[in-house]
Amino acid sequence: MNNVGLKLNFKNCFAVSSNGKSGGLALLWDSDIRVSISSFSNHHIDAEVDNEDGNHMRCTGVYGHPEKSQKKYTWTLLRRLAGLSLSPWLCFGDFNEILNLDEKKGGIEREADMISEFRKVIQECDLKDLGCSWYPFTWSNRRYGPHFIEERLDRFLGSIEWTQRFQDDAAKNLVSWCSDHSPVMLDVIGRGNGGQNHRRTLSRVHYEDFWSTYDECRGIIQRNWAEIGSWSGSNTVQLFQKTSKNSLAELMLWSKRAFGDSKKKLEKLRNRLEELQGHNRQYVKGEEVKSIKRKIHHLVLNEEIYWKQRSRADWLAEGDKNTRYFHSKASSRKRKNKIWGVEDTQAMEDKS
Predict the structure, then answer these.
(1) End-to-end CA separation in angstroms for the chain
(2) Which of 38, 81, 150, 196 is the most exposed, having the fewest neighbouring CB atoms within 10 Å of its CB?
(3) What is the pTM of this model?
(4) How many Cβ atoms are within 10 Å of 27's Cβ, its own excluded?
């Protein structure tokens, strides 16, 4: 888990091991934040946190028992945690329960007693649901069509002290295309960080590793090299350079037509997915939703391979969506590889 944290640009990590492929918790934080772990279990991580502004809070990540007969242990855990600290408290995670009937759509109606128990424990712990924006649900059974079920199982809760000291803007439920749960984001830091201007530089032409997964790429290369015919009686080096250049030029044209601006395509797909979810079209447009998620997954995978090639960080297996890590590695390598000047035999330096 520490490696995953580093790939996501978090310098510190505390993890509770999983049981095979199930369970497992992790709390990740950056170097400008001081975190002290107070307690942990298979269902929670409790920590005291000091951020860079000097503000102190308590953060508790929770994974609620999904089984009906075990939910009482989650509520007992929350009650015990509530009495252990007077710090402003932010409690968040997958509670595996809803707060009202509107937080479930499709399937059998939730039992009122289960909802009542969750609401009761939140009240006893002096916590407040911080709400959510954009899409109201965070989990689905992914069975698009008439059997589609959605619920709001993931949320942020804050104590009165926390809402008085920190921003209490609603959390945002983000789009997910590879999990039954959606990420939930809450911004609790000051805004206004100015952007930075970057000097444009000429880009180099590369053979992209992800091209190799397409039959069209193989066909272009085979056709160009087949046109050579015989190597005998030729300037081998020049012929090799010419054929390589022609192949790469044709591959660049093919890539531009096939993939275009991947960021724009990705944004368009995400917007369409948000539109379908926002208008509850998963029930009648299930195949389109699944198709969009597959396309997003493929584009993100291509982007990862793209930055992996430039970073030469070969220790990460393909499949982890960590393009920000690879981008930073590639940028660092580019700075190291830059030729800042050339000195001739008379010690005259040219920096043009």
Answers:
(1) 46
(2) 196
(3) 0.58
(4) 22
